[in-house]
Amino acid sequence: MLLADRSFDAIVIGGGHNGLVAAAYFAKAGRRVILLEASEVLGGALATGEISPDYRISTAAHLVEAMPRRIEKDLKLARHGLRFAQRQMTTIALARDKRHLTMSSRRQDLVALRQWSAQDAAAYVAFTARMKAYAGLLRPMLGAAPPVSGETSDAASVFRKLVWNARRLGKASFEDLLRVLPESIGDLADENFEMPLLKAALAFEAVRGTAEGPFSPGTSFNFIYREAMRHETAGISLPQGGLGGFVEALARAAESLGVIVRTSAPVKRITVENGVATGVETEAGELLLAPAILSNVDPSDTMLRLVGPAHLDARLASRLGRTGRRGATAKLNLALDGLPTIPGLAPSEYGARLLAVPSLQELDAAFASFKRDELPFEPPMEMTIPSVVDRTLAPLGHHVMSILIQYVPSDVKGGWAGQRDRFLDRVLETLSTYAPDIRDRIIAGEMLLPSDIEAKFGLPGGDWHHGELRADQFAMFRPAPALARYRTPLKGLYLCGAGSHPGGGISGMPGRLAAELALSEGRRA
Amino acid sequence: MSGDDDMQPVEEELLEEPAGETRAEDMPAADEAPMENPVEESPSGETSPGEHPPFANPDLDLLDAIAEIDPALFERKAEEPPFGRQVLTTALHLAAAAESRTNLWTQWNGFTTPDILTDIEDEYRALRHAAALSDISPLVKYRISGRDAAVYLNRLVADNVLALSVDEAMPVAFCEDHGLVVGDGLLFRLDENEYRLATEETHLAWLQDSAFGFQVRVEDLGTTLAALSVQGPLSASVLAASGLRDIETLRPYAARWFDIAGMPVYASRTGMSGDLGYELWIDPEDAPMIWVRLLDKGAPFGLAVTGFALRELARVEAGIPRAGRDYLGAFSAVDPADASTPFELGLASIVDLEAGHFTGRDALQRARARPPRHFIVSLAVDFPEPLDFRAIQCNGAVEGLATSTGFSRELGVNLAIARLKAPAVASGAVLTVDVERREGFSLRRLIVPARVLTEPALTMPSRHVVPAPLLSIG
Question: Which residue of A149, A301, A313, A322 is the best one to mutate when testing the B interface, meaning the one whose CB has the most B CBs within 10 A?
Fold first, then answer.
């Protein structure tokens, strides 16, 4: 191969959605970009697979929540085949007594809520408005690269600005915010509402996908953070053809912009010369060169495995080595020979996002089991039946159901080998309390435990977010102060995955912001 | 079967013999004593050390200076709780104690160390004109070994370690991520994959933290390795006379294995005196014997035993800052402004920014472009008598602090290692120290000029001579 064929303007390692977005933005600027993906398919944890022939479903992640409209437009994703089966999905908290609760401030939903608890209906409106206002403070920070690196004392100026903006909410709100931020979402929900189901559903939104409990301090911040992430988007959306369809559109957009995409091309290491990342060596032994290398791989994995501790300062390396990833989510995909009956749910509501979290106490009990590496008795769940709105996923009259199970330990006491079936039985038992005929409807199914997710998608610890979305890993502290702003100590190496600001959830923002930073630095050099 | 037969008579012996002995010596109530604990008594009838007060050993000659301290006093007891012992002693404690004419002791790294053994003037004269022997076992020593030892150390320290060959030593400084010095020391390469690091302060946590991702083993040799220092113009002669053959051929910073009467000695031509000198790295069990032999063979050359005070004075003369006293390690300094970069410590010569990555390199590259915030310098205060001073003034304002001071009898000048704010050094401004001098019952305030030394106050040319000068005594 000629040397010219091996040198590029940029190399993107990992073809997850952030990698694809980063590569596309680079190519859009007229640069020669190659994207290397280790597995056979692009998309990472965004994939559509077949449970059994003709029954297709999003294998891992199942909803797009945080992708800003701007990226869709910039990359002309609609032109490349992105269709949404549903946008602005409603969320319904399922109740054991069949009085399900629609989580929205729409007039008719509030009327229903008021009949149930007038106090909560009023509190819900006030609470949502308050959280929106707080989220509004974070929003400017989420749309841009963190203003300074966490290493410098200028981080203080960022907080000063946040505080300044917060004061404009008024003295009472400001004081309330200072109290709310370090509070747990459980306590916050408890003091605002009286309905157990409403409290639990709100708490679940804050802790979903994390290894934290509803009463873990600081989880209120998670709630506000996620609220802010959603703000730029058109709500929760369900792409046509599952998330695989979403990735296909993204890949087509990238390729049409000129990105060279190579799958089954695992990277062995990033080559470093005198503190500068010069290129990558693939497992096949090929050397590729580029002045900019963007890694969509987990930050710790990138720095410790691909770069190696010898090229890093000792404290950074040992710190990265110590921060273990703790995935807490498992996925169950079911093929059904008909729509399961959920008593109390209107026919039009089967396409909604359904939560099975009866109360704060039960959510906390599940977390306590998780903490002790035990199986939760009634695991909290988030479910969708995407085939209700997307007919391409299952044969006519049949359905697929996608279930995220929260608080599943990655190393369960006694090992997973003997307990997989027991756990599946518990999940189905819990499901049966809401949909009594679910067991009779199942034709086929697959369950991915955190360890399966780690192995299948290269996500260390099975953590979907490449690190918790917490206040101590926010903005200039994400993923570590020395690695904030997408930069690494190695010149030419950038982190463009969910481990960087603004973080996980399918946003594409780390990819876009990392690419923009790398482009601007390339121009200056 | 035969085993059972053997066992029985032995048990009977154990029960009977001590019983008989106690009956003969003790009061009638002692009848029950053997019943409580028969097996612990020694079968041969010898008395165990626990039974007698430590000084009652009839073999001890109370007039013999060396023998009068019972080693049992310093033996560790098995049931000692962790960290229960507040005061540690080195393997040479008894040997040094026997030489002490002053009973002046101090603490060095938690070890009881003689401060002055005979007389500071005598010790100083020996150091500068003959040879001085001292116990430097309280130094912190680490053994670093394993497949990645060389790359690990190259990432740890600021200099190029890969250039160090076997049986050589180099001074090293190591920084944390922000380029602030954690500590400094002397690094020896003992073998292809085996190194030894001798430092002033303990750094085990940092060494292990840095080991993340490397195939390397870090061991603390605190109590398993003893060290002696022989410094002075006649040090080579003393060692040669003691049986270290061809010691004079050793180059500065080189090291080699020798043996003294069958005891292995790893000797290096290193030291803190600014003069010819050697350090011997030895087994703690051999240490007292080697100490005695050196004193024996060194006596004709005027070898003197010396303490920590002399080491400090020699160090000030040679202009070597000590961690924990003249500068704070990055992890000891609460305020990062108190910690220093190697450039501020005057260690720029052992920083190699071009030879591969090390911890703090990026930060040091940036730091090199910035003016240093402060300097650690050698300072001379010209006054013919020892002075006591701390604050260093520049144009009337306190701009620095003398952290180690001493009066050089050789040069007739007061010396200090001082930490000065950058402007006080850069401008070449006039520096002074305020001194309160007591004369009888009157007090005089003096303002004495001070000057920054650009090179160590005292360096002996023989320091670099190879082969080292030998004096033969017929």
Answer: A313
Q: Taken in order B184, B189, B192, B195, is the CA torsion positive or negative?
A: negative
The answer to whether the Cβ–Cβ distance between B176 and A315 falls below 8 Å is: yes
Q: Which of A251-255, A274-278, A313-317, A519-523 has the lowest mean pLDDT?
A: A519-523
| Minimal-distance CA residue of chain B relative to A490 | B362
When pLDDT is averaged across residues A252-269 and rounded to a whole number, the result is 95
- Judged by CB atoms closer than 8 Å, whether chains meet at A310 and B151 is answered as yes
Distance from CA of A453 to the nearest CA of B (A): 25
Which letter, b or e, does each residue of B267-292 get, where b requires 16 or more Cβ atoms within 10 Å of its Cβ? bbbbbbbbbbbbbbbbbbebbbebbe
Angstroms from A312 CA to nearest CA on chain B: 7
Per-residue pLDDT band for A161 (boundaries 50, 70, 90) equals confident
List C-alpha distances in Å: B304 to B44, B121, B298: 45, 11, 8
Of B151, B210, B354, the CB nearest to A314: B210
Contacts of B155 in chain A (CB under 8 A): 309-310, 314
**A308 closest CB neighbour out of B156, B177, B213:** B213
Q: Do A310 and B213 touch (CB under 8 A)?
A: yes
Q: Look at phi and psi of residue B97 and say left if phi exceeds 0, alpha if psi is from -120 to 50, else beta.
A: alpha
Q: Test A275 with B360 for CB contact under 8 angstroms.
A: no
Q: Do B332 and B277 contact (CB within 8 A), yes or no?
A: no
Whole-prediction pTM:
0.83
Distance between CA B259 and CA B245 in Å, rounded? 9
E-strand stretches of A177-297: 238-239, 260-262, 267-273, 276-282, 287-289, 292-295
Q: Which ranges in A417-504 belong to alpha helices (H)?
A: 420-434, 438-441, 450-457
Beta-carbon separation of B212 and A314 below 8 A: yes
B 273-302: CB under 8 A from A: none
- Please give, rounded to a whole number of angstroms, the shortest distance from the CA of B166 to a CA of chain A: 22
Is the minimum CB–CB distance between B215 and chain A shorter than 8 Å?
no
B177 part of contact set with chain A, CB < 8 Å: yes
Whether cis (ω within 30° of 0) applies to the bond prior to B467 is yes
Our measurement of the distance from residue B64's CA atom to the centroid of its chain's CA atoms, rounded to an integer in Å, reads: 28
**HSE-up (13 A, CA, CB side) for residue A182:** 3
* Beta carbons of A311 and B357 less than 8 Å apart: yes
**Average confidence (pLDDT) over A211-236:** 87
Task: Report how far residue B237's alpha carbon sits from residue B224's, in angstroms, rounded to the nearest whole number.
Answer: 28
Provide the sign of the torsion angle of the four alpha carbons B151, B152, B155, B157, taken in this order.
negative
Task: Phi first, then psi: give them for residue B414, nearest 5 degrees.
Answer: -85, 135
pLDDT-based confidence at residue A464 (cuts at 50, 70, 90): confident
Return the H-helix or E-strand segment holding B185: strand B181-191
> A304 and B210 in contact by Cβ < 8 A?
no
Average pLDDT, whole number, for chain A? 90
A274, A308, A313: residue with CB nearest B359: A313
Q: How far is CA B225 from CA A167, B78, B228, B311, B340, in A?
A: 63, 21, 10, 20, 30
With beta carbons less than 8 A apart as the criterion, state whether A513 and A144 touch: yes
Q: How far is CA A197 from CA A60, A476, B63, B327, in A?
A: 26, 36, 90, 61
Cα distances (Å, whole numbers) of residue B293 to A112, A144, B243, B244: 98, 74, 9, 12
